[in-house]
Amino acid sequence: xxxxxxxxxxxxxxxxxxxxxxxxxxxxxxxxxxxxxxxxxxxxxxxxxxxxxxxxxxxxxxxxxxxxxxxxxxxxxxxxxxxxxxxxxxxxxxxxxxxxxxxxxxxxxxxxxxxxxxxxxxxxxxxxxxxxxxxxxxxxxxxxxxxxxxxxxxxxxxxxxxxxxxxxxxxxxxxxxxxxxxxxxxxxxxxxxxxxxxxxxxxxxxxxxxxxxxxxxxxxxxxxxxxxxxxxxxxxxxxxxxxxxxxxxxxxxxxxxxxxxxxxxxxxxxxxxxxxxxxxxxxxxxxxxxxxxxxxxxxxxxxxxxxxxxxxxxxxxxxxxxxxxxxxxxxxxxxxxxxxxxxxxxxxxxxxxxxxxxxxxxxxxxxxxxxxxxxxxxxxxxxxxxxxxxxxx
Length: 393
Hints:
It is built from 16 helices and two strands. The chain is mostly helical. Among the domains are: about 110-175 and about 310-393, Endonuclease Iii, domain 2; about 185-305, Endonuclease III, domain 1, CATH 1.10.340.30. Strands 1-2 form a two-stranded antiparallel ribbon. Helix 6 packs antiparallel against helix 12 (about 290-300). It is globular.
């Protein structure tokens, strides 16, 4: 009886202490944060190792009654919920009172590949390219204002650009570049009908993206020899997809390209009797065909030059020679077409691709054996010698 009476007394004291703590917390919250005021969050005191040990010891010595502990925890949770609700209400009021953030106006850019004879971009309407070659409007339509990111700032081309171009043409007469014998223009069957040859040229261009000419040429030979019935639009559309994937491997992204050439074959066979579209928009409507491929295909398959096909070689060399100052191949195309004579457009891609494969390589360019190193502003060793000569004067 005495032990039972003692345990009951201890439980009552513990329950009374818990209710006192909750009541004290409620009064403190109501007095320190009246209605409508923003509560200030007090920093939590750092708990030292000694405090943690003491709190653990106190918790171990406390009575273990499920009923009393449950009611105390429920009361504490209710107090915490009330505090959280008050803080959320004050935060919502502050957010509603603050003004909304202003959004930065975006520059709208629209690129029309079809409008090859349209007006030049607004930021190119200057006299930078007036001297020298005749002005050729670039196929772009850009909102007025400063040039958007990616198109760069138009610069006056290198004053010796014509001498640079003639020097590259002279070096390229030797040949020896993979593009000269295994480029996309060399992969079609010379004995096939014109429509079949044009389709084969299109297929070669679709496979050439991010693929070396040697690998692309070997894949085209396998397609011409092993596609049942020959490499025509109808036969490619009817061939098993797995067969096409096997034949074009190890071309990069061979699975996607196999689907693309099969879809192109089906579209050409159904809509044009096996021939390819005769316009840039028609070619770009085919899956896997972009503007660069369309420009080159129009020149190689139809003999019509409508634009400059800018790939990684053309983009790199044009920037090295200070013809443009861009970071994007599309911007390079826009800027080149704004001042380069139209008579140079068609041959420029093969010319610079071969130059980039043999001399002006991406890594370790052979500047010592380049015939235009004295005209190149980025030739290795030349800039240092020019600075030394200027210092001696």
